[in-house]
Amino acid sequence: MQAAVLSIGTELTRGELFDTNAGTLADRLTALGFEVVRMQTVDDDLGRIVATLRELAASPVRVVVSTGGLGPTSDDLTAAAVAEAFDAPLERHEATLARIAQIFASFGRPMPPNNEKQADVPRGATILPNPVGTAPGFSLERDGTLFFFMPGVPREMDAIFEDSVKRALGPLVRPSGHQIRLRTFGLTESELATRAEALFADVPDVTLGYRASFPEIELKILARGDDPRECEERARALAQKAREALGDAVFGDETTSFPAAVGEILRRRGLTLATAESCTGGLLSAMLTEMPGSSEYFLGGSVVYANRAKTAVLGVSPETLRAHGAVSHETAQAMAEGAREIVDADLAVSITGIAGPGGGSDEKPVGTVYFGLAARGRKTVSFHRRFRGDRERIRTLAAYVALRLVKRAAEGEDLEAP
Amino acid sequence: MQAAVLSIGTELTRGELFDTNAGTLADRLTALGFEVVRMQTVDDDLGRIVATLRELAASPVRVVVSTGGLGPTSDDLTAAAVAEAFDAPLERHEATLARIAQIFASFGRPMPPNNEKQADVPRGATILPNPVGTAPGFSLERDGTLFFFMPGVPREMDAIFEDSVKRALGPLVRPSGHQIRLRTFGLTESELATRAEALFADVPDVTLGYRASFPEIELKILARGDDPRECEERARALAQKAREALGDAVFGDETTSFPAAVGEILRRRGLTLATAESCTGGLLSAMLTEMPGSSEYFLGGSVVYANRAKTAVLGVSPETLRAHGAVSHETAQAMAEGAREIVDADLAVSITGIAGPGGGSDEKPVGTVYFGLAARGRKTVSFHRRFRGDRERIRTLAAYVALRLVKRAAEGEDLEAP
């Protein structure tokens, strides 16, 4: 069954906001078994939104999933456009209005008059409740096409899609097989594709897909067929084969991020961790503490940007800094040891490097990063890597490589260059 | 003048690759003075690409900029679709073929036969040379609409756009006014809209827009008109009026994030900063170090997740922790003082709270956060806030409120509750 994704907002057509919703929805609809044949973005212009809705209703797509334009401001026009396009006048939905007022009341604030319009929905529409924000979504059928409208805020869109849209769409398609996603870190997309395609070259009825979400890449393995149980079993066997072939590049399934996977290993093994960061500036500890319950294994971290912080907080000696520099094996090791000892952690990892754009030299160009790992009762080790790209990319890659080092240490592996 | 952006590729409609080209092109076209009214993505299906091209030629847009589908493989169909849609048969462009063969020769490899098709372009098209890859782009006019086709590889698209497309488009547009963007933190989108709309209710020829990028919200003020100089002057005056009315909710113009704006204030005043974080886990220091050059003012931070880290790293006394708890005025103040003293910073800010979802109590529910601020020669102060929302939202808001506290302290203001 053919589907379309519609994004509404001048901030998108002016290139001010990057549209992550469209790609996410294309992925989810494809996973459900739809063929997405059209993705469209239109600006906040009533006439053009109306024309687009009518075009989509007249096109062969049977499902349209839309985001954006449901906010409280005067340029949020989606509900009004639907009303005009489909001759379904706006009606106030009292239960929704009460819910919006209640949300503001719980913040101890009066509801601004602007927000009232978020309770106006086209006649005949079904409300899609928003568990995490004020604007509900709504759905409605026209000329055999089922339209879903959701707010553009990604976490609101996400919640409404999971709670309501998925359930409504499920019965429309027959799954064409069973898909398993493996999340990987450490291979480029073309390395991953080359290896996965070689692995499954002679296997019938399997479709491979990839999805890059820097620095992670997802491998999607779809076992095609009509019998759901048989497909699921086959998909599981194929995923197991991929896991074995790809080794520790595969770190998890579905929704677990790499930091969460590493945290889970620490928790399961009862190990505690400390961090010491220079060029990543706290990014690593921020990743490690994104997950609820991270206090079970993460004791603390030091962001030692200035040399005096490296000395005062972690006890890196001024002689080490003078003789080898802040970006060196010696400093990385001393940082990791200081971080471990100060809170008596089982493991500590350190990162010191040059994230750029300034600060590079011929000997230590931008992207040069040293990592140290100190473990209770083991010899402290350090590694050196050189990353390419801009500041953000270098910092993210450095944090991920440090996580991989922690993973290997936690699993008791011999530490080779991460 | 109206423009459209077209992206071609099944990897996009399956959600396997996020389309960065569309947003980039929307931004570039807007900057040139075009009104982008439509962005569309179509899968690698000859019939649907042909239909989309004909629709666009018949629509009011005068310029279409397209990426994707110019590669050497069998699912690269853009040139064939253009040929069919516009009755312009493919013709081999010998100079292009020679150039592709030469690129392969320079790698010491024979040209694969597949690549020959990259030299086939629709009759009447103008070649847009590709300085960084094998596939050239091409442009062609149909029914008063100018079409540009470029490869989907972002750096190739980028190079062709800069070298050829921009030059061809420049003479077509006159800017329609002057826009200024003000970035704000501390008001909700509807509060901002209510206040801005009241402020400019009687002002003619001005368009207001908003862009939320949590937790920041941008107010866009467009002074419409034909005379660029007059529009710019008027936009500046309106922006100044908005700044005065909105007070310190406005923290910057255009592309400066709040962390960057606060960093800039510190840099300008020659002040140094240290941080001490518990529930935000390093998020604040990661934000502060996103900007190149942040080492000028940011000395370091401590992420003291466990109580033993609060004591060992920052000298928070076990008695304080026992008597008042880790989430308290007393601990927040001790953390800020410890963080300031250990690296001898001018200012230090601390955050300690309950980000959830677990860990709350009746007295201190999830979302309860204490902030401390220590400044050289001033009395240490602390504040208490309660945030709503999920873990990510609470952490982000807490980091931003801490930044606002730093901003006020750096500007020498009396510190009231942030």
What does the model show?
Two copies of one chain form a homodimer. Chain A is α/β, with parallel strands linked by helices. The first copy, chain A, folds into three domains: 171 residues, MoaB/Mog-like domain (Molybdenum Cofactor Biosythetic Enzyme, Chain A, 3-Layer(aba) Sandwich), CATH 3.40.980; 77 residues, Alpha-Beta Plaits, CATH 3.30.70; 153 residues, CinA-like (Maf protein, Alpha-Beta Complex). Chain A has 14 helices and 17 strands. In chain A, the strands form four sheets. Chain A has a six-stranded mixed beta sheet with strand order 2-1-3-8-7-6, with helices on both faces. In chain A, strands 14-13-15-16-17 form a five-stranded mixed beta sheet, with helices on both faces. A four-stranded antiparallel beta sheet of chain A has the order 10-11-9-12. In chain A, strand 16 and strand 17 form a beta hairpin. The longest helix of chain A is centred in the C-terminal third of the chain and has 20 residues. At the A-B interface, helix 1, helix 2, strand 2, strand 10 and strand 13 of A face helix 2, strand 2, helix 7, strand 10 and strand 13 of B. Strand 2 of chain A pairs antiparallel with strand 2 of chain B, so a sheet runs across the interface.
